[in-house]
């Protein structure tokens, strides 16, 4: 009996490892001991001259993980015969590719063919956000991801949540990644940094139901403010801060602002429309609670369908498959 228990625990352990548990703390400890420090150094250098970069890298990591798992597929360029994820419609304003390339070049110079682009992106997103916290990491990034070889714009369209979606639709997409409603509300707090383009919310201002009206769930004062920024329904170039007046500061402001009905997108505002999700929003008004929960949900997001063992490859150049 005792043997049986031990044996089944060993088996369970292995099952645990095969389910996204293939990631490790400091996976490159022996194969490329300086990898994580190189990522950190170069990320910091770029952030110091580009304060909008943390938002770019965080979003890039999110888009990577939601399409075919965190496999660096968002970094691949389109080819003559394939339109890649980065050229799909939800790619609007994706940026930071140059920074990933810069880091990858430095890492390759030290340890060729060893460190995946997917890991570099996961680490750089964390390190960029952490700069404003004296480089104290806000979440742990386990490593050992391998890079995928497939990137299709059609898959980005299906898997990347849209700013026009409601809670039911968002929950569904997150569930398809094994992420919960709680993860959805917590990770939406990433919108404490960064900007959004007018055309992604302008219907809420100018033509909500097709009658030239405004979204009643949008704070009227905030709507008036947004109307002074956006030129109209077809304004695709103007951007506004998602977290008004603190869009470069990673803080807990997203939730109090949301509760004032100042969520920018329908996908933000919709988090208030069910009792269950609203309760989670209320809970996250506490910034410490948000930071703790965000760290946990980021680990879960960073483990979506990761490639390990002999699956995938270690790409030599992040924008093309080997
Ligand atoms: C819940 C579903 C989500 C939807 C519908 C959504 C949608 C969007 C949209 C439409 C934008 C603006 C893009 C633009 O106009 O340029 C945006 C920006 C951003 N999103 Fe999300 N997002 C979601 C979840 C997330 C998650 C999970 C993260 C990261 C953990 C994230 C991080 C960001 C960041 C940092 C920006 C700012 C990018 C910048 O400043 O360029 N979002 N998101
Ligand atoms: C990172 O930067 C620090 C301080 O600038 C420097 O001492 C260190 O050698 C750098 N490490 C790597 C691996 O580039
Ligand atoms: C987004 O896709 C369009 C084509 O659909 C492309 O022209 C543009 O360069 C892409 N943006 C980025 C940041 O890759
Ligand atoms: C969410 O949107 C879908 C598709 O437009 C719609 O069928 C559904 O009724 C909406 N759900 C809620 C709760 O608004
Ligand atoms: C979600 O979990 C199930 C069961 O453990 C697994 O088969 C599936 O691959 C997971 N999906 C993702 C996207 O991680
Ligand atoms: C507002 O929406 C309606 C219905 O979709 C459309 O017919 C109308 O042209 C829109 N108004 C503007 C100014 O685009
Ligand atoms: C941002 O700050 C300015 C100046 O302090 C203030 O007038 C404005 O109302 C703030 N904007 C929002 C949307 O809170």
UniProtKB/TrEMBL annotation:
It comes from the Eukaryota. This is Uncharacterized protein.
């Amino acid at each position: 009996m005792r043997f049986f228990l031990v044996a089944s625990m060993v088996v369970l352990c292995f099952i645990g490892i095969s389910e996204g548990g293939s990631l490790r703390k400091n996976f490159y400890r022996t194969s490329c001991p300086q990898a994580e420090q190189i990522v950190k150094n170069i990320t910091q250098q770029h952030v110091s001259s580009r304060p909008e970069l943390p938002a770019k890298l965080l979003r890039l990591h999110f888009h990577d993980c939601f399409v075919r798992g965190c496999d660096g597929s968002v970094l691949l360029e389109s080819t003559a015969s394939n339109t890649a994820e980065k050229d799909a419609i939800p790619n609007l304003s994706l940026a930071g590719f140059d920074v990933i390339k810069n880091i990858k070049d430095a890492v390759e110079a030290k340890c060729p063919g060893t460190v995946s682009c997917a890991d570099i992106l996961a680490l750089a997103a964390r390190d960029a956000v952490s700069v404003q916290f004296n480089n104290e990491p806000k979440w742990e990034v386990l490593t050992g991801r391998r890079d995928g070889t497939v990137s299709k714009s059609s898959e980005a369209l299906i898997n990347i949540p849209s700013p026009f979606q409601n809670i039911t639709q968002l929950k569904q997409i997150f569930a398809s990644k094994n992420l919960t409603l709680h993860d959805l509300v917590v990770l939406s707090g990433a919108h404490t940094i960064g900007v959004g383009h007018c055309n992604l919310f302008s219907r809420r201002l100018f033509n909500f139901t097709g009658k030239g009206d405004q979204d009643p769930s949008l704070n009227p004062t905030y709507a008036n403010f947004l109307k002074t920024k956006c030129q109209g329904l077809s304004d695709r170039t103007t951007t506004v801060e998602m977290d008004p007046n603190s869009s470069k500061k990673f803080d807990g402001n997203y939730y109090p602002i949301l509760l004032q009905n100042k969520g920018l997108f329908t996908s933000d505002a919709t988090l208030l429309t069910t009792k269950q999700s609203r309760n989670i929003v209320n809970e996250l008004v506490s910034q410490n609670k948000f930071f703790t929960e965000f760290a946990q949900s980021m680990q879960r997001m960073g483990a979506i369908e990761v490639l390990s063992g002999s699956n995938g490859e270690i790409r030599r150049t992040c924008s093309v498959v080997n």
